[in-house]
Structure formats: structure tokens, C-alpha cells
Design a protein that fits this description.
This protein has 332 residues and is mostly helical. It contains 18 helices and no strands. The protein has helices at 14-25, 39-73, 84-101, 105-113, 116-124, 130-144, 148-156, 159-169, 173-187, 191-199, 202-210, 215-231, 236-241, 244-252, 260-271, 275-281, 288-299, 306-320. The termini are far apart. Residues 1-10, 25-34, 76-82 and 323-332 have low confidence and may be disordered.
Length: 332
């Protein structure tokens, strides 16, 4: 509710209404009253729920209208617009509105039930215009984020494979970035998504993303790699077997960029209690010890680079200050 006597702001879903009801009931000091709910509070809840349901119906109608625009603009309906440019502009606007609406999890579920996800998978991700493709990827990200039901549905429809291909090869830079965002929404804290990611060689896609000339894609690829290695350390051997340490060190030798912080963090994950990762980092041909020494000197005294410096020092301590045993328990 608004403060200071302002207009009441109702929540966007039932969970929000219930939370507000609990807050309203506990606003007074002292223990909760044992008597039945007052008529005033009943009236307030009826009003809030009625407004919520009306708003939800309005949003469902908006989604239905957006889907009608998409079907017309994509050639899937009877009423095809003669002005192609105007039609495709309408498709882009409809996708943007759907993305905004589906930040509400109830709407994301409703869009799935309305067939909207199927439509966008079949017609938008392969559209000739990059502006349509990236907006479709953004919509999938909005729907899948924190919504296991939608995540599982998209995984069953092989959306992850298509999004990884867009991330890897699409000619439009924004499509690649938005597709990777959708990938992250399908695999982070989602076991089925991670299994599919591994089966489709997703770590190689991230590696190539970090080597691209697209700064946003490099940053997001490195961040997702760091996140996955932090959350799922059991997959370090898979990553190490791909020569990831050598590839990451090569990335660090490129002109310095803020995303190098995530690269160093990923290397720290690969050596943490992992002799194989330490051995890879110690390979003389990599020259990683000298690289880290110079990088630490460059970062010293730069507050904005403090976390990167900490990763750098952690990696130096793990790999080059004292020896760790190899897999046979023998010191190297």
C-alpha cells in the first residue's frame, strides 16, 4: 500500500495480495487478535482480489491480442497485413509487450497455455529479421526465469538447443546476447537444463562466446561459466578435459577488459581442491604465473578492480605459492 495517505497500489498477483493481507494484519503492536477477521479487513481483501482478478483478465486479453498480432504478422492468420514493414513492426512491439507482461509469473504460465511459446519457437526464433529473433529470445528469458514449469516445457521442446545455436552462430550481435540470456534462465539452478546444456556441448559455446569480438557476449559468457562452475563443481573434470584452462589463459592475454574478472574467477573454481586444474595452470608453456604477477601489479591501487585482484591473488596462491599433490598423492 502507498505510504502517507497516497493512492493504494495493489499487487500484481495472488501471492502479493496474501502478503499484503498478512502485513496489514501484523501492523499493530502486540500478539495477533484471536477474534474473527473484521468486516473492514474482509472488505479490503474483497476489493484487492477483485481488482487483481480484473487486472489479470485485462493482461490475459492483452496477451491474446499480442498473439493475434504475431499470427497476422508472421503469416499464420487469415487477416494478413498488406504493409510488410508495418506488420513486422507490430510483431516486434507485440513481443516486447509480451516480455513485459510475462515478468509476472502467472502471465508466463498463461502464455504457455495459450500456445504463445509454441508460436514463438516455431515462427520467431528463425525469423529473417534479427530484431524479431532477439525479442523472441528475450521473451523466453522473461518466461523461464524462476518458473520451473515453463523451463521444463521449453526444455521438452528443444528450445535450449536452438538458443545455443543462436548464441554460437547468429549474425546479429544482439540476438547472440539475448539468446545466451535465455540459455542462462534455462540452466541456472535447473538440473534438467544443466543436463541438456552438457549434452549439447554448452561449455564450448561459452568458450567461443568469450573469444568473440562482442563485448557483451564475452562478459555474459564468462559470467555464466563462473556461475555454473561455482554451483556445480562436480563438472570441473568435464571442463578441464576440453582444455578450458589453456583457453581461459589465452583470453586473459587479450587486451584487458572488465570481463577478465569472471575469467579469473572461473580459473579459481577449476583449481579449488582440484589437483588436475592446478597442474594445467602450472604448465610452463602457458606462462600463467608471470601473467598473474604482472596483472596483480597493474590492478594494485585500483578500487574498481578489487575483486579481480582478489581472484588473481587467489589463483597465484593456489598454483604458484607452494605445491599441491597430484592425483596419486605425490608432490610435484
Amino acid at each position: 500500500m502507498a505510504q502517507g495517505g497516497g493512492e493504494r497500489q495493489h499487487p500484481r498477483n495472488l501471492q502479493g495480495v496474501l502478503r499484503m493481507a498478512v502485513e496489514a494484519g501484523s501492523a499493530a503492536d502486540g500478539p495477533a487478535p484471536s477474534e474473527p477477521m473484521s468486516e473492514e479487513r474482509k472488505a479490503w481483501l474483497r476489493e484487492a482480489l477483485a481488482e487483481l482478478c480484473h487486472g489479470q483478465r485485462d493482461e490475459v486479453e492483452q496477451m491474446k491480442e499480442c498473439l493475434a498480432v504475431l499470427r497476422r504478422g508472421l503469416g499464420g492468420g487469415e487477416d494478413v497485413c498488406e504493409d510488410e514493414d508495418e506488420d513486422e513492426d507490430g510483431v516486434e512491439a507485440a513481443l516486447e509487450l509480451l516480455s513485459e507482461l510475462c515478468e509476472n509469473l502467472d502471465n508466463a504460465r498463461d502464455l504457455m497455455a495459450l500456445g504463445g511459446l509454441d508460436l514463438c519457437l516455431s515462427r520467431c526464433l528463425s525469423h529473417r529479421r534479427g530484431e524479431v529473433r532477439w525479442r523472441a529470445a528475450q521473451l523466453f528469458a522473461s518466461c523461464a526465469q524462476n518458473m520451473p514449469e515453463v523451463q521444463c516445457y521449453l526444455l521438452q521442446q528443444e528450445a535450449l538447443l536452438r538458443l545455443l545455436r543462436l548464441t554460437d552462430t547468429d549474425e546479429h550481435p544482439t540476438v547472440r546476447v539475448k539468446a545466451l540470456y535465455a540459455v542462462s534462465c534455462l540452466v541456472r539452478e535447473q538440473e534438467a537444463g544443466l543436463r541438456a546444456f552438457l549434452s549439447h556441448d554448452g561449455f564450448s559455446v561459452l568458450m567461443r562466446g568469450m573469444q568473440s569480438d562482442n563485448e557483451k557476449l564475452r562478459t555474459k559468457s564468462a559470467f555464466l561459466l563462473l556461475n555454473l562452475l561455482t554451483a556445480y563443481p562436480e563438472h570441473r573434470d568435464t571442463v578441464l578435459s576440453m582444455g578450458m584452462v589453456q583457453q581461459l589463459v589465452s583470453v586473459l592475454r587479450s587486451p584487458h577488459s572488465p570481463f577478465h574478472e569472471h575469467v579469473l574467477g572461473a580459473l579459481c573454481c577449476l583449481v579449488d581442491e582440484c589437483p588436475r586444474g592446478v597442474r594445467d595452470c602450472r604448465e610452463p608453456a602457458l606462462g600463467l604465473g608471470e601473467l598473474l604477477k604482472h596483472r596483480a601489479e597493474e590492478l594494485e591501487g585500483r578500487p574498481e578492480s578489487q575483486e579481480e585482484l582478489e581472484f588473481c591473488e587467489r589463483l597465484r596462491a593456489a598454483c604458484f605459492q607452494g605445491q599441491l599433490p597430484d592425483d596419486n598423492g605425490m608432490d610435484r
